[in-house]
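Weekly modeling sync, notes
Attendees: S.R. (lead), two postdocs, one rotation student

Agenda item 3: backlog of single-chain predictions. S.R. asked that every request posted to the team notebook include the full sequence so nobody has to chase files. The rotation student volunteered to paste the first one in as an example of the format we agreed on. Action items at the bottom.

Example entry:
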Amino acid sequence: METVGILGGTGPAGRGVAARLAVVGHDVVLGSREESRAIEVASAMSVRGAGTITGGANDAAAACDLVIVATPWDSAIATVTSLRAQLAGKTVISMVNALTREGRELVPIYPPRGSMAAQLAFALPDSAIVGAFHHLPAAQMEDLDSGIDADVLIFSDDAQAREDVAAVVHRLPGLRAVIAGSMSLASPIEAFTAVCISINIRHKAHSYVKMAGLVE
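Predicted structure, as returned to the notebook:
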């Protein structure tokens, strides 16, 4: 079973993905700029299944077989750039959304290349960038008893990496992988996260994306 490192993994989104990866047997490293913080967060998590969750510096997470970027959007590029050599030749999953708050709503920010996934692809030319995990409510992901039944939209210009990530996602409890297409869809998929969060704020809910009508 491949190891998974989560850069910036101590936040709610990273912890939620880590919890479900551990259930199906992955050994997960929560990365952070502060190693002590990552160790503290990982040790406080309740782990089920055959996998493990440990904490370490971001370079320890980058050393894993599969790497997920879960940092705040404004530090994502600096983080991965410093780890470019370690990430070369690997599949790197971007779950980063560039958002800002305006009143009770979240609105998208469009970076120079149109999406954070495209920015990461430019910063990591020797890695395969795949987008996934954008529209998931973090608290329900970390709570393994939440009953979440969500679709994860996956996009990439690397068809094999896209399929490999879909296979990982499809095994996670409560999630179904849906391949959306190429990197050209990154901008609307990332931006739609603002809609999901704003709806949840307004309705005090924890909704998520589910695509009806798909044939398994």
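Discussion: group reviewed the output briefly. The chain has one domain: 4-203.
Action items: rotation student to repeat for the remaining queue; S.R. to check formatting next week.
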